[in-house]
Amino acid sequence: MASGDLDPPAPDAALSMEQDLDFWFADGSIVVIAEGVGFRVHMSLLSRHSPVFRDIFAIIQPTQGKELGGGGSHQGVPVVHVTDSAHGMHCLLHAMYDSRRYLTDMVPKIPFAVLAALIRLGHKYEHSDVMDEAAKHLEDYFTTDMDTWLKFCFKNRVPNFEFSAEKQADLFECVNLARLTGKTAMLPAMLYACCQLGIDDILAGGKRHSGVIERLSEQDVLLCVVGYTRLLRLSGKIVPAVVGATCAVQCQSWEACSQRMQSLRTVSYKTAGILTINALAGLEWPRRIHKFTVLNCWTGLCRACRDGLVQSYRTTQREIWDKLPSVFGFEKGELGEIWAERYTVWHENLC
Ligand SMILES: [Zn+2]
Hints:
Potassium Channel Kv1.1, Chain A, two-stranded parallel ribbon, SKP1/BTB/POZ_sf, BTB/POZ_dom
């Protein structure tokens, strides 16, 4: 951490601070002040887990009583000012004192803001356990595995965390955290989610109630712009997946089903709006093909034919999923091993 991240001690800062209710230990050996909130904690514990805190404490201890005299100490305990938010510091200390239990006790309703704070501060203070433990919950959701992704889409599985009411800003922060920590395997699913917001919103950023606007980097905005067009093109692959369908071998009512298949092909050709940025949307997705999955030509198909058609669609979906890295212009190896194993190059004329 740069020394500039520490504020110079102000003479009366310690006096005007508000004491944190959870982290004010009578035997604490250091007072950390963030956004005017003081945390009286144990230097030894913070030093044990964070080389950054260790370095900070090494600097301030010998000077205690000189540069840090008066407002620089509180009841004889040295004070250090940090530029982090009070909420962030509160979360970090919880994770340091309570270990994994802090997050696991909140599953499946871990507030996104808690995960974001732990990832950001875990990274800043070089406490990789805290950072990795929090990131794991995002990695679980912004998965590299399509079957897992489908479970979340169809609500067969719920995430371990909850986005805030400012989901747009949360999504952009997710991307920025993945970039910050180098956990790039999450980026295809994250950028896909960002694209669903539309280019206008991506360019505008996500405004928080605090007034802060969360934005993607210029580089990631460009990836989204390129990816957006490609996703629209890929979504067109659903047409051949549906119109190329034929009756299943196990069909129970071939004559009726083949007539309905024919109607389905006619409807599919005529269906405007089949192109969507949600290229991975399922057949049952309300805003996509739902309009004809309620028609007789769909519902009247025998089980075997309907399953066959869904299967054909799933194959197309899987092809699109495997193309996500190249949709967003990533090179092989940029996103880690799992994506690299099934990397496909984007060919403008073939996709
Ligand atoms: Zn059939």
